[in-house]
């Protein structure tokens, strides 16, 4: 795994940051290139899920429910984004691959598609976690895709938005070069539809042509960062749903302990109702925890290992649904709920290392998924509790 | 974690048959410790612990009815999240100030009850296992849960 | 929710609906959608329609030591509800009742309801079987009870409409083939059936095709496990609605939640994710012309001399705990009572209305339930999934109805929770803790012995619920006692209740069937009936002890019929003597069959809404329609045909503000 030193200012992350592979800085040239970009997008959408889940699952039982539901809503949208990217990739006759060890980055990781060396770590619910989330979801200047004169001097990606716009540009270009029908020649039976996927932060839709592919990219970018200069996303326009603040502003609400009102803007900040947050009602964990930190043979270690194995199984179910029968996607839900319980049980246990326990740290799920885990997961039973 | 809490966990392992990981995993250790202290008092707990010590830490060998009823109450608390009524004579013998009524110590205590784990289930109304899981065969309920993992995995 | 009080000075509405439960919510939805101005008066609070209110109910449920159906919902002394904990059995038999109901019958009425926005449907199980065609004609076909003035065919389209509104998951082909229900060609429910539980599958393996005799010499009845339709989110069926499909309706108050049942196993008393239908989901889509006023307890219906009603008087309170209220009136062209069978009867009696037939309050019914329970040899997977996913339907129809009440058998997925209070009772029992703290306690099990014994015993629990049809009897009734009043001064309902020998014979047959099923399964039968504090429904019959339970299916009290001399309402649920007063709900049912009644209630409410719309159109016929420029509010004075709503969407809820704008 390639790593890099974290920047100063995040002193609790002392070790090195894992590097997420980025596609070359160019507009996808051909179908194979497009597959590479969309596979990278799939990994990017997954990257943020473990940090969000860690914040949720380190809360004390029953504590901070408004914050829990807010983070949960964002996680659901990230999962929707993963499924939408998989639909786009399948539509252009690609093969979404999520069940291999390189798909899951090590944590802490360096935030990709950014000039900053910003660490994305698995942190307990708290100010540091929320500041990480805000950085990930921050609305930022989105430069033109590579090849545009204005970015002639750049040698790499400067924002996630730029990366997605580049995929969009590639789709448009290839649809022109190959013909739309030829580009979207993927097997329509691979498409995940609303009967397969639910509670998903907007309704999943099938991708069959250029407009639906671009719509999928639009949902992904707008749910995250909001639209133009407003606090809200476009779910009400796209899905006919209740207007909700985009991810960035939902995290901002928690951090500032106040909701955005209907007339608030990014400049005004939130002026709506108070939102109670009890910062002490979370189990502190080591942001660089590894399963190997827990003594071999200990109950905590066994649980951490089982979590990683269960996570591998979950990704196998997802890959099966994305590359085979979308009907099987529903089997991922019991796996996720079981992992949630195991992660919560871990974080309620004091860290088995006496020194870390002395500092008040607790055990945690580490999301280290190896090829061995995948090998075992493929041999084991899936989805049955 | 204080030595007193560690001791409470050790005592609870013997009473409940669940290991320390499972007990910590409820997030209820401190609340149950404090509840027990509040309901019985430090002095009575001291006598109870001494009594349990004298029979080698095996609650089955407790003879004194007061000690047995305290053992029942702490176990009941862990299994259901509910502090039970003590037997009337024991309540009187302890000279308790509290009313002798059963109560759920917190909403989360109910959802963290150990009883559900004995048959690899989940508390009614919480920790839902997902759509359609009820169609799957349950794990063999006669096999003891694997330490440290319980049913909380996707296998 | 923010408050938008009704227009100051506005007193008149097109329709007043009393009660924001299932029936009232559907009537208000239909009429609001057609542009009528609807005032819904709800006696209880509106706390539960917000997400924080829902979470509070969940916490209240978690904390309750007795997890009865009303346990999540905070008691409201200003609009009290009956509770299952209000009745207790006596050591030597018999029962004692306290709480809201006054009970003076030989047996207790063990059915509760909930007075709050959303109503009793907040804690329903969510099963939605249709009634059988023969259930509508029990007098003609089998010589008992009362017939409906309408039949299955009259209600079929409304059944479909109700299944769409509630979002029903089921297998119509199986319902048709196994039970004989007629559906239009090719009909599918909005969602595919809720998957069968592991226990259903175990039982189907042993019981499908198995013949049983319910008594010596009786003909064989062949058993078959059939999945049950649910108003619960499942996998949408793309074939529904001519291929347009169906989008499951999630939780009211939290986006992206509850779009599938996730198996919380607590449909009763509260679905934590709101995958189960509640009227709150329909209320979220009420037209803005529907105004909900909560904390408004209707005390009587106001009348003119000619039999027509003018409106209602209601008592508004602010703080449920404070003994203070104010009195208001509201007027409308049509008044719809939708407050529950018992409350509807209470209001008619207190108002002195609809008395010609002498049937108001009479024919009180329920589905008396007999429970049997035992242990299977292998784990059953108890306490998983919805309360029941399948049933045995073979005893609901046919010639045996001449002699005994028919019954529907629900396979319970929740172990012994109903019969014994498991698993809490198992923990207490094994620890040696007895119900009476004065009694000596058992030695008790501890440690791994306790854990293993609990796991083994609870893991093999199963139970069957036999829900019997209760025939309409005019001696079973609701009256009011002016000498005993609730805190707002409204006389409390008095219930006089008993079971007929026909019902009791049904229980004898049910128990015989249970015995044969248990023997077939090789089950260790732990069923035991006897008097005691938790058995208020104890009685003796045919030389044996029996205990029955209420199903929460309060019905009868203002039955419909084809004659003003023998029934309270007509086939449209309109009071014979009061052409602009409707009483809707299970109270209108002259017989209840063996189907859980909410779906039929919903179908009836949708059907009545059509007639109310026709009545209103008739009343407003001479007036010229005026276009109302958007977005100016439509005139609220009476008499004009309402303009179409200018902006669809949820109507803000007013908090106890009356139409006068005063608390």
If you had to describe this structure to a student in words, what would you say it looks like?
The complex is a heterotrimer of chains A (385), B (155) and C (663). Chain A is mostly helical and 385 residues long. In chain A, 45% of the residues lie in helices and 2% in strands. In chain A, the strands form two sheets. A two-stranded antiparallel sheet of chain A has the order 1-2. A two-stranded antiparallel sheet of chain A has the order 3-4. The C terminus of chain A is likely disordered. In chain B, 57% of the residues are buried. Chain B has eight helices and two strands. With 155 residues, chain B is mainly α. Chain B starts with a helix and ends in a 37-residue tail after the last helix. In chain C, strand 3 and strand 4 form a beta hairpin. In chain C, helix 4 packs across helix 14. Chain C is globular and about 75 Å long. The N terminus and C terminus of chain C are likely disordered. Chains in contact: A-B, A-C, B-C.
Offer a few descriptive terms:
heterotrimer, B: 155 residues, mainly alpha, two-stranded antiparallel sheet, 8 helices, 3% strand, globular, disordered C terminus, C: 663 residues, alpha+beta, seven-stranded mixed β-sheet, six-stranded antiparallel β-sheet, 14 helices, 23% helix, 17% strand, disordered N terminus
């Amino acid at each position: 795994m390639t790593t890099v030193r974290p920047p100063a200012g995040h002193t609790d992350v002392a070790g090195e940051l894992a590097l997420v592979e980025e596609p070359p800085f160019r507009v996808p040239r051909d179908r194979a290139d497009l597959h590479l970009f969309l596979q990278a997008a799939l990994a990017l959408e997954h990257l943020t899920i473990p940090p969000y889940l860690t914040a949720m699952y380190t809360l004390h039982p029953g504590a901070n429910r408004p914050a829990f539901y807010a983070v949960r809503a964002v996680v659901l949208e990230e999962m929707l984004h993963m499924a939408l990217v998989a639909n786009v990739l399948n539509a252009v006759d690609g093969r979404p691959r999520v069940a291999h060890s390189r798909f899951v980055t090590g944590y802490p990781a360096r935030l990709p598609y950014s000039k900053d060396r910003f660490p994305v770590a698995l942190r307990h619910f708290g100010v540091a976690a929320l500041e990480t989330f805000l950085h990930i979801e921050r609305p930022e200047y989105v430069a033109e895709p590579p090849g545009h004169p204005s970015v002639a001097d750049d040698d790499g990606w400067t924002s996630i938005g730029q990366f997605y716009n580049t995929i969009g540009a590639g789709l448009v270009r290839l649809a022109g070069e190959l013909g739309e029908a030829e580009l979207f020649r993927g097997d329509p039976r691979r498409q995940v539809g609303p009967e397969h996927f639910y509670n998903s932060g907007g309704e999943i839709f099938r991708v069959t042509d250029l407009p639906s592919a671009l719509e999928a990219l639009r949902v992904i970018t707008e749910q995250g960062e909001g639209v133009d200069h407003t606090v809200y996303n476009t779910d009400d326009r796209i899905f006919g749903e209740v207007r909700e603040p985009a991810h960035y502003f939902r995290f901002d609400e928690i951090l500032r302990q106040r909701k955005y009102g209907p007339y608030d803007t990014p400049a005004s900040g939130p002026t709506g109702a108070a939102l109670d947050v009890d910062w002490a009602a979370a189990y502190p964990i080591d942001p660089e925890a590894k399963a190997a930190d827990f003594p071999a043979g200990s109950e905590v270690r066994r649980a951490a290992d089982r979590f990683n194995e269960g996570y591998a199984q979950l990704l196998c179910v997802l890959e099966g649904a994305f590359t085979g029968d979308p009907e099987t996607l529903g089997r991922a839900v019991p796996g996720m709920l079981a992992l949630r319980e195991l992660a919560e049980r871990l974080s309620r246990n004091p860290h088995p290392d006496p020194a870390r326990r002395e500092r008040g740290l607790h055990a945690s799920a580490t999301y280290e998924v190896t090829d061995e885990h995948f090998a075992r997961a493929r041999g084991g039973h899936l989805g049955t509790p | 974690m204080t030595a007193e809490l560690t001791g409470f966990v050790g005592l609870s392992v013997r009473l409940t048959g669940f290991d320390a990981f499972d007990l910590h995993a409820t997030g209820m250790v401190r609340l149950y410790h404090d509840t027990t202290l509040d309901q019985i008092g430090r002095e009575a707990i001291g006598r109870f612990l001494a009594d349990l010590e004298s029979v080698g830490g095996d609650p089955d060998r407790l003879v004194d009815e007061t000690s047995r009823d305290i053992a029942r109450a702490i176990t009941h608390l862990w299994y259901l999240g509910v502090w039970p009524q003590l037997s009337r004579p024991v309540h009187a013998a302890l000279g308790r100030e509290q009313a002798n009524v059963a109560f759920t110590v917190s909403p989360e205590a109910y959802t963290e009850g150990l009883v559900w784990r004995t048959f690899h289930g989940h508390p009614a109304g919480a920790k839902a296992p997902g759509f359609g899981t009820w169609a799957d065969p349950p794990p063999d309920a006669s096999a003891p849960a694997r330490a440290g993992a319980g049913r909380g995995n996707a296998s | 929710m923010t408050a938008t009080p009704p227009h100051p000075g506005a007193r008149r509405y097109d329709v007043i609906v009393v009660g924001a439960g299932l029936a009232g919510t559907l009537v208000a939805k239909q009429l609001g959608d057609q542009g009528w101005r609807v005032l819904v008066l709800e006696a209880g609070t509106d706390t539960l329609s917000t997400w924080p209110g829902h979470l509070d109910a969940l916490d209240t449920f978690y904390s309750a030591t007795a997890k009865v159906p009303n346990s999540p919902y905070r008691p409201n002394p200003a609009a009290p509800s009956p509770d299952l904990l209000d009745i207790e059995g006596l050591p030597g038999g018999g029962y004692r009742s306290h709480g809201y109901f006054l009970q003076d019958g030989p047996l207790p009425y063990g059915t509760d309801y909930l007075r709050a926005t959303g109503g009793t449907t907040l804690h329903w199980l969510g099963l939605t079987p249709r009634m059988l065609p023969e259930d509508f004609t029990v007098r003609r076909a089998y010589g008992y009870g009362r017939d409906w003035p309408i039949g299955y065919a009259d209600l079929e389209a409304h059944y479909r409409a109700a299944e769409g509104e509630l979002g029903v998951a089921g297998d119509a082909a199986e319902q048709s083939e196994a039970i004989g229900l007629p559906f239009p060609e090719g009909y599918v429910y909005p969602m595919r059936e809720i998957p069968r539980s592991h226990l259903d599958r175990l039982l189907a393996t042993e019981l499908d095709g198995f013949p049983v005799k319910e008594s010596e010499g009786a003909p064989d009845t062949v058993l078959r496990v059939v999945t049950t339709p649910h108003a619960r989110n499942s996998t949408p069926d793309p074939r529904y609605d001519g291929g347009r499909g169906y989008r499951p309706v999630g939780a009211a108050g939290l986006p992206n939640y509850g779009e599938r049942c996730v198996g919380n196993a607590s449909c009763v008393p509260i679905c934590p994710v709101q995958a189960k239908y509640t009227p709150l989901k329909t209320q979220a889509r009420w037209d803005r012309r529907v105004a909900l006023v909560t904390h408004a307890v209707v005390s009587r219906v106001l009348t003119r001399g000619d039999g027509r009603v003018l409106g209602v008087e209601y008592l508004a309170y602010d703080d449920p705990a404070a003994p203070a209220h104010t009195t208001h009136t509201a007027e409308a062209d049509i008044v719809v009572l939708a407050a529950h069978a018992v409350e509807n009867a209470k209001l008619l009696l207190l108002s002195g209305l609809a008395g010609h037939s002498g049937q108001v309050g009479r024919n009180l019914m329920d589905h008396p339930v007999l429970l049997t329970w035992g242990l299977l040899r292998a784990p059953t997977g108890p306490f998983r999934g919805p309360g029941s996913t399948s049933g045995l339907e073979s005893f609901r129809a046919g010639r045996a109805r001449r002699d005994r009440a028919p019954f529907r058998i629900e396979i319970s997925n929740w172990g012994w929770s109903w019969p014994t209070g498991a698993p809490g009772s198992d923990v207490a029992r094994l620890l040696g803790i007895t119900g009476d703290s004065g009694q000596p306690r058992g030695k008790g099990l501890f440690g791994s012995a306790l854990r293993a014994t609990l796991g083994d015993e609870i893991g093999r629990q199963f139970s069957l619920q036999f829900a019997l049809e209760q025939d309409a009897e005019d001696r079973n009734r609701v009256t009011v006692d002016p000498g005993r009043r609730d805190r707002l001064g409204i006389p409390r309902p008095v219930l006089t209740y008993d079971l007929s020998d026909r019902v009791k014979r049904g229980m004898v047959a049910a128990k015989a069937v249970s015995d044969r099923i248990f023997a077939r399964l090789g089950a260790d039968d732990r069923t035991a009936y006897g008097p005691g504090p938790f058995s208020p429904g104890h009685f003796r019959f045919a030389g044996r002890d029996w205990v029955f339970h209420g199903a929460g299916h309060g019905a009868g009290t203002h039955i419909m019929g084809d004659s003003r001399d023998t029934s309270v309402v007509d086939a449209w649920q309109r009071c014979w003597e009061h052409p602009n007063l409707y009483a809707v709900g299970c109270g209108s049912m002259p017989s209840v069959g063996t189907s859980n009644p909410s779906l039929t209630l919903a179908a009836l409410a949708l059907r009545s809404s059509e007639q109310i719309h026709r009545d209103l159109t008739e009343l407003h016929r001479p007036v010229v329609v005026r276009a109302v420029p958007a977005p100016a509010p439509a005139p609220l004075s009476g008499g004009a045909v309402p303009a179409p709503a200018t902006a669809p969407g949820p109507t803000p809820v007013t908090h106890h503000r009356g139409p006068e704008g005063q608390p």
